[in-house]
Design brief:
It is a single chain. The chain is of the alpha+beta class. The protein is built from 6 helices and 11 strands. Helix content is about 30%, strand content about 30%. It has a 4-stranded mixed sheet, with helices on one face. The chain has a 3-stranded antiparallel sheet with strand order 6-10-9. A two-stranded antiparallel ribbon has the order 2-3. The longest helix has 22 residues, at about 40-60. The two termini are about 30 Å apart.
Amino acid sequence: MTEIDLWIWSLAPPEARQAELRQHLDEEEQLRAARFLRPRDRLHFEAARGRMREILAGYLDRRPTDLRFQTGPHGKPFLHAAPAFNLSHSDGWAALAVGGTEPLGVDIERFRPVERDLAKRFFSPAENAELATLSKADRPAGFFRCWTRKEALVKALGTGLTVELDAFDVSLSPGAPAEMKAMRLPGARAGDWSLTHLHLADDFVGALATRGPAQLTLREGTLPLA
């Protein structure tokens, strides 16, 4: 059982706090922030990356500005001699999962309108069949439970867009446990991976994907969101 810490925070802190978080960013992050066209997107990026640096620095007993991130072959960031971590943000909130040495991934999503055929394009036949059994009222929640669980697994694998989303099946029905039901990826088995459902609000869900079972501890924020 891997112990995973979950940190959740708002991306709209007071102005003085925003300035403090901005100071943690390195030159490359500052350049990335400057490229955002919308001020809101820039501020959210700074608040997400700055607070992530603070949290990870606490695990390593270092200063946030001292962290030097590296990236894997498909762009997933990591730190040498540090626990595994993964960041996600949506609609003004960020979630960071930290713990263990095995790969992990987290994804959070606020419900929003999506193209009618999006599930048919990206979900597996089994997932589409399960989604079709849901009532019209339950279908948005089913869609985003499926989407976040699949995104969390892809982020854990660190393979980016090289993995087709229909190459594995996850559960999505309300009341059903979050689980990896099948995997059709070379060298991968569904039983090697665990999914944890995150209920942020009635219209806001997320998922944690870990190799093997995980014990989740909320270190910052509340679930559901206050």
